[in-house]
Amino acid sequence: MTERKGALQKLSIVSAVVCFVLAFIAGVMLYLRLESVGSDNPISASLMASTFFFIGVGIVLIIVGNADIPSFKFDNSKEN
After folding, report:
1. If we measure between CA atoms, which residue out of 18, 56, 51 comes closest to residue 33?
2. Phi, psi dihedral angles at 68 (to 5 degrees)
């Protein structure tokens, strides 16, 4: 089977990279927030949830982008 990637698979890989960058930014903001107010603050909890969410979405999008999805087009050529 050929290893052609569709436009949506390429978009999912790019989106996964964006999610990992956002997870890194949320992690840095969380680190800075924890130093000043601690983990009992609701903003710190939402940053923890955002970091977890972006990492999870990034992993799923990488898997979808790297999957070998067959072509669902009909082949009208006649085989003899």
Report:
1. 51
2. -95, 90
